[in-house]
Amino acid sequence: MGHVREYSVKEVCDFLEMIGFEIEKVIYRGRYKPKSIWKRMFTSSILFLVPKMRPYFSVIARKPDKAG
Predict the structure, then answer these.
(1) Contact yes or no for 68/38 (Cβ under 8 A)
(2) Residue-wise pLDDT tens digits, 41-51
(3) Structural domain total, the chain
(4) CA-based angle 33:35:36, to the nearest 5?
(5) Distance between CA 39 and CA 33 in Å, rounded?
(6) Residue 3 lies in a domain
(7) pLDDT band at 67 (very low <50, low <70, confident <90, very high)
(8) Angle, CA of 12, 8 and 59, to the nearest 5°
(9) Among 9, 41, 45, 62, which is 20 to 30 Å from 30 by CA?
(10) Is the pLDDT of residue 24 over 70?
(11) Range of the domain at 52
(12) How far apart are CA 56 and CA 28, in angstroms?
Protein backbone atom coordinates (compact mmCIF):
# COMPACT_ATOMS: atom_id res chain seq x y z
CA MET A 1 0.00 0.00 0.00
CA GLY A 2 2.91 2.35 0.44
CA HIS A 3 3.34 5.16 2.93
CA VAL A 4 0.26 6.11 4.93
CA ARG A 5 0.09 9.20 7.12
CA GLU A 6 -2.73 10.07 9.50
CA TYR A 7 -3.25 13.74 10.32
CA SER A 8 -4.81 15.19 13.45
CA VAL A 9 -7.58 17.78 13.28
CA LYS A 10 -5.12 20.44 14.44
CA GLU A 11 -2.59 19.53 11.73
CA VAL A 12 -5.20 19.74 8.96
CA CYS A 13 -6.64 23.01 10.27
CA ASP A 14 -3.17 24.54 10.70
CA PHE A 15 -2.21 23.56 7.14
CA LEU A 16 -5.42 24.96 5.64
CA GLU A 17 -5.01 28.23 7.55
CA MET A 18 -1.36 28.45 6.46
CA ILE A 19 -2.40 28.36 2.78
CA GLY A 20 -5.11 30.97 3.26
CA PHE A 21 -8.28 29.08 4.11
CA GLU A 22 -10.63 29.98 6.96
CA ILE A 23 -11.92 27.02 8.97
CA GLU A 24 -15.69 27.11 9.24
CA LYS A 25 -16.48 23.78 10.83
CA VAL A 26 -15.04 20.43 11.84
CA ILE A 27 -17.38 17.45 11.60
CA TYR A 28 -16.57 14.27 13.51
CA ARG A 29 -18.05 11.15 11.95
CA GLY A 30 -17.89 7.39 11.85
CA ARG A 31 -18.40 4.87 14.58
CA TYR A 32 -16.93 1.72 16.02
CA LYS A 33 -18.89 -1.52 15.70
CA PRO A 34 -18.21 -3.89 18.60
CA LYS A 35 -19.91 -7.29 18.29
CA SER A 36 -21.50 -7.21 21.76
CA ILE A 37 -24.80 -5.31 21.94
CA TRP A 38 -23.82 -3.90 25.36
CA LYS A 39 -20.47 -2.64 24.10
CA ARG A 40 -22.19 -1.18 21.05
CA MET A 41 -24.69 0.68 23.24
CA PHE A 42 -21.89 1.96 25.50
CA THR A 43 -19.76 3.03 22.53
CA SER A 44 -22.70 4.80 20.88
CA SER A 45 -23.39 6.69 24.10
CA ILE A 46 -19.76 7.81 24.44
CA LEU A 47 -19.60 8.92 20.79
CA PHE A 48 -22.81 10.88 21.24
CA LEU A 49 -21.46 12.65 24.34
CA VAL A 50 -17.89 13.13 23.06
CA PRO A 51 -17.99 13.43 19.24
CA LYS A 52 -14.21 14.03 19.07
CA MET A 53 -13.78 10.32 19.89
CA ARG A 54 -15.17 9.34 16.47
CA PRO A 55 -12.61 7.78 14.13
CA TYR A 56 -12.99 10.18 11.17
CA PHE A 57 -13.39 13.89 10.63
CA SER A 58 -14.09 16.36 7.85
CA VAL A 59 -13.00 19.98 7.78
CA ILE A 60 -15.17 22.60 6.11
CA ALA A 61 -13.05 25.57 5.03
CA ARG A 62 -13.32 28.39 2.55
CA LYS A 63 -10.85 30.63 0.81
CA PRO A 64 -11.76 34.31 1.26
CA ASP A 65 -12.27 36.48 -1.81
CA LYS A 66 -9.20 38.54 -2.65
CA ALA A 67 -11.42 41.46 -3.67
CA GLY A 68 -13.21 41.77 -0.36
Answers:
(1) no
(2) 888 888 888 87
(3) 1
(4) 115
(5) 9
(6) no
(7) low
(8) 45
(9) 62
(10) yes
(11) 9-62
(12) 6
